[in-house]
## 1
Amino acid sequence: MKISKILAPVALATALSGLLFAQRLRDEAQHRGVLVGTAARAYLLSEQQYTATLAREYNLLEPENDLKWQTIHPAKDTVDFLPGDQLVEFARLHEMKVRGHCLMWGHYLPQWLEDGHFTASELRTLLHEHIAKVVGHYKGRIYAWDVVNEAIDEKGQLRSSIWYDTPGIGEARHGNAYIEQAFRWAHEADPDALLFYNDAEAEGMSRKSDSVYAMVRDMKRRGVPIHGVGLQMHIFDLKPDFNGIEANIRRITTLGLQVHITEMDVALPVDGGGKPRDPADVQRQAEIYRRIATACVSTPGCTAIQTWGFTDRYSWIRSWTKGRQGNPLIFDHEYAPKLAYKGLSQALRDSPAHGSAPNQ
Ligand code: G3I
């Protein structure tokens, strides 16, 4: 059965639920000339509350895991587009844009690739074929890609991965030639897609964000097809450096690159039952969402704000922190909007408009 037949009843339910919510994040975002998005999981499209909230509130979605190597390329000669296609079709039905994540990362790679002991020339061919096949399959349907994810470490150095550790993927046999090569292949496969470098812990002003800034500035100067930087914005300490983040967004957009906040969540210390240890943290969390979203919306060139999931029910944080932190998102486990939702909504409503929506 066609995917659209499966999803059609969802569209009806979503339209009805949209009538119940006067304000919607996506309307406020559209008015401000930005996209508001969330990571999403194909296997959850069978859950009515999940799809109703997703379609009602967001004009952008990003497959959390369904376009990663391990999911989409599980065996050397197997490519599984079904989960990605389900999310892309859902987005099409609900007039949402799609970000692709991610074409090159050192993690979450399938065993056949990790343990393949491929030569540089073999790895170069495998990566080229993967990028050409995946970006080609979604050409015109995925408007922006995280081409390379988390290639720089906390010291600002290129980190070890099968890609970095096998010189020869790029033309030059050193430095970030392998990163540039991935961007060039992605651009060949879809010249209209916006291509991003995406990283964590590089949101404020730091040695790491200086390295990201220097790398993307150099790439842009030399005509490498790069269009933006993704700042993941995973906040674990309730004390983000707001001024540093604003300064970093400004300096990147001053290069003529876009900034997307790509994976925002604000983790709260929780007790064994998953309840916030300090009720005041809930207000702190809301203020962080408001401040960070304002930093983006009020800076021309910062064109998307995305959270890493939208309901606390399915966040990666509790498992990642072994239960010590949780409740990082803007809808609670029962899909009720939290104070954090109001913080994000207020930023979209009250921040100065960008003017006309940029080429998103
Ligand atoms: O789907 C399998 C399931 O079949 C199996 O039974 C289960 C048992 O291990 O694993 C499931 O796969 C898990 C997958 O999430 C889907 O739930 C993987 O083990 C698990 O490692 C994977 O974690 C994801 C992680 O990236 C690694 O890919 C998280 O959900 C996802 O939120 C996280 O997202 C990353 C971004 O891609 C990059 N930025 C950091 C961010 C957080 O780590």
## 2
Amino acid sequence: MTNIYGKTIEQLEEYFTNMGLKKFRARQIYDWLYKKRVLSFDEMANVKKDLREQLKKDYSMEQLTILDKQEGVDVVKYLLELKDHNKIEAVLMKHDYGNSLCVSSQVGCNMGCSFCESGRLKKVRNLSSEEMVLQVLLIEQDLKIRITHVVLMGIGEPFDNYEQVMNFIDIINSPYGIALGSRHITVSTCGIIPKIKDFMHHGKQVNIAISLHASNDALRQQLMPIDKAYPLSELIPVMKEYIKVTNRRVTFEYILLRDINDHIKEADELVHLLKGMNCTINLIPYNETSHIKYKRSTEKQISAFFDYLKQHKMNTTIRREFGSTVSAACGQLRSNYEEEN
Ligand code: SAH
């Protein structure tokens, strides 16, 4: 049965008008689901009994379940179970500016980045929009907090599941529902150019982050197979166009891997690659995992890399670390679980 949390307000309006009812019913339902947060149709007091019965026939309100939860300083990491028993992760990070949830978009991932734990287990399937919405609702309920920011940086490649991800964004962004501001939502992609172009024309003020991780194609192709299909020579011009069309700053994520991509040579290449673009470079200290050979760069090398970029007037930040003590490194909780069971 269709889960109601996967429906955009427009889809629900269509459902009601097809039944010969007024559109405003959709807003009423959204109010119950996302403002009042009831967990059954019977609690929707201003919806007539026969309509409630019809809704029960057409839609489920089934939630996700929490399998495991690990808490660290300012971080809570969840292993969640889906209806078909597949497992995903979601990570809540407490920042001084608010609570940010890292949401998964797929079960596994097919992008095959050599440093990433999520890709060791291949893609099983895409997540539906409701399975993304329910990550937000469940964790808000569990921790009794409001999530102020959503980042699509959990397991999966969001642009390999474009349609469901866009529905998810519409649903959490709707003023009649969770009403999360589009500037508080970030999609992170390994660089699937056709979808970046679609996203560029979508018209939402949602942030985009590009997983760059290398300053030239030879290196990037070792780390990220996607670079063979969409090399930097195409990606960077598209991002320049993206900035022009959307008038928004983009983020480039750069994991620092010891002795692989953390030399001043690569920092210098980055300066030349990104010079003049309205962008931020977010340096990510690598989260080591037992299954993968890469090491985190030394503190000294991280500082040297950062300083070089700053000296060359690049907007650069170093990602604050969460959860290396709670296997929070991108896909670790799930892959550990799958191996133990
Ligand atoms: N597929 C998307 C989003 C998921 S990954 C993407 O590629 O952007 C979110 C970010 O975490 C990406 O930048 C990814 O490269 C990075 N990442 C993956 N494994 C990591 C690890 N072990 N340590 C630090 N960052 C990692």
